[in-house]
Amino acid sequence: MYVTLDELLPQYMEKDAAVGAFNLAIFPDIPTLISAAEELNAPIIMQASPMISEFIGYDYWGMVAREMAKKASVPVCMHLDHANNTEAIWKALDAGYSSVMFDGSQLPFEENVRITREVVERAKRYGASVEAEIGSVAYLGKDTHKDQLTDPKEARDFAEATGCSCLAVSVGTTHQMRTQSANIHFDLLEEIQNEVKVPLVIHGSTGLPDDQLEKMRSYHVCKVNIGTALRVAFDKGLRAELEARPNELVYKTLLQRPLEDERQVVIHKMKELGF
Length: 275
Description:
This protein is of the alpha/beta class and about 280 residues long. Strand 7 (about 200), helix 9 and strand 8 (about 220-225) form a beta-alpha-beta unit. The chain is about 50% helix and about 15% strand. It has an eight-stranded parallel barrel with strand order 1-2-3-4-5-6-7-8, surrounded by eight helices.
């Protein structure tokens, strides 16, 4: 079934579980992720960045995700991840994505509020939901994206002013980490959840140790983003297949192992998130 974040996330505010949001890179990722979710009878959020959406085509992502989600036995959301301009968001909404993220974390507070509110109003016409971000989760090895922990009261004011469906916050993670060495500031997370009334989102969660993923479930964290772990698993599997089968030209044969390795990562992360 095809759902929005509004339909999916609020029910996990008080549950000992959070929904995994996994980044797509190629079309075969879609059935791979849905298969993992169905095995555990868990909801799943599939998300594509503007770069990936543009490369393959927003319309194609929207069409394939929507049709496969309709046939799935579990709730499936198709989400645009980390759009920092409205042009990408309008394309995703037109293509049938069920939710979008406007990332205004690098903007002044007032401008982030203004554009997020504009996105929320436009998304309502499509029946879509909107994720926003306050504070800023940095990218490993990149100094162009600031690292700024979320201020709880600023988060409250932002969520109330924008009407966003859920709010991404910065509490200790970093994007694109390959080691599980990040640490959540749980005291800060608790302060934020005491102020903010919408579901919370954690980005850069590949970098979190399993025990912290488990602990996070008991907070108001309802969406947990995981991308790098999938890409690492797929890359290792594909390289091994290419080495073992240097003359193989059938892509279906070459992709079976990396996609299964990716699927096992999704299953493991979902279990840590309470499913």
